[in-house]
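FIELD: query
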Amino acid sequence: MDLNVLLGIGAGIAVITGIGAGVGIGIATSGLLTAIARQPEASGKFMPMFFVGVALAESTAIYGLVVSLMLFGRLN
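FIELD: result
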């Protein structure tokens, strides 16, 4: 196979990390809302952990985007 084909496939696969980040943030939001619905007074304890989890999931998507752009830049 041509190297450009492999680079294009790799770039496409790297972009798929955005789907995983979206699913992860959705699950985290669902869990947060469930926890707040059960104990509204403890929402102050849940929010910092939620934001840390969202930041980690979003950083995964950003890493995938960066890898994809690096591979896309190598195409001729």
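FIELD: remark
The helical segments are 3-15, 17-38, 43-73.
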